[in-house]
Specification:
By secondary structure, the protein is mainly β. The protein is built from 3 helices and 13 strands. The strands form 3 sheets. The chain has a 7-stranded antiparallel sheet with strand order 3-2-6-9-10-5-4. The protein has a 4-stranded antiparallel sheet with strand order 1-11-12-13, with no helix packed on it. A two-stranded antiparallel ribbon has the order 7-8. The longest helix is centred in the first third of the chain and has 8 residues. The mean pLDDT is about 90.
Length: about 180
Amino acid sequence: MTVPYTPPRVAATGPEQFRDAMALLAAPVTVVTTVDGDGTRRGFTASAVTSVSLDPPLVLVGVTRGSGCHGPLIDRGEFVVNVLGAHHGPLARRFAASGADRFAGGEFETWPGSGLPYLPDASVLLRCVLADVVPAGDHDLLLGSPVEARTNGSSGALVWYQRSFHVPVQTSQQRTAAVRVA
């Protein structure tokens, strides 16, 4: 006889408890880029990025409503999801820092025909048009429809786990292990 699973009842959690719990959820590290109305490049480091649908293809990007990128992302209606490789830790930190000149490193190029900045050596590039905006707490969830996708082999993905960057590696037993990077 099969007994249906009943989840345990838990009390509501506070912001710190929730943040601690989410630190145990590994996530790919991306830099999301766009341009604003006067052509200024904008971007931020994001780990709240995921595929949503295969038919039609959709990707979700979470962005804080108060961020400097929020308005340009909505107004422009186009963005690039740059999935970072193992060597992009310093770039991810720069794009996460408030007040930093995020594009100072000169790594970004302009996507032909769109004017959008992109990172040529990113593991994956998704040029998206905005399909929908879903309010969620203090964030908006942007649903993007990829109009172009590029992959660049794999230098190893950069993931955020336990509040630091890691790179998954294959062990000799073909199991994935994580190695912390600086």
